[in-house]
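Protein entry
_____________
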Amino acid sequence: MSKQWMIVVVLLSMGKTFFYLRIFDRLSPIVTMLTKVIADLKIFMLFFFIMIIKFSLILDVMGIGNINIEGPFRDKWLVAAENGEEYPGWEYSRIGVFFGSILSVFRISMGDFPIIDQTREMDDVENVIFWLVFFTILVTTNIIMLNFLIAEAEHSYNIVSEKLVQFIMKEKAAMIDEAE
């Protein structure tokens, strides 16, 4: 069996494991809450992904870390790239510049900043533009979006908690009625 199918099988079994964890009283609220949060975050995640793509397009236009664009970055790192050596942004060489930019923006949004190494060969104007874009990406994706994520998760948790309390009260009332 190929590795790809084994990964699919593991992911599917993980989903089924979470489904069956709802059987246990102590795990049921957590699994239900996680399911609800993931369902509620679909639109939010679509918006987040669109923002990441738009910011990555800005980085593509700037040509940050692009070995194919003539300039100081290419002059300094082209020989290393041709020899198979590491250079800033080499980890994206197999997936292309566009997807590399998407991953760079995603890494910035998660608090990882390897893209800064790719700015050493920029002139002053490009450097100012880069830092403005960088801080815009950082503030927009990292701070604002993570706060939205936390707020949405809390909202979903409160809804699930209220339903759980109602269910428990209903069960207690049914047990009291049976006892009488």
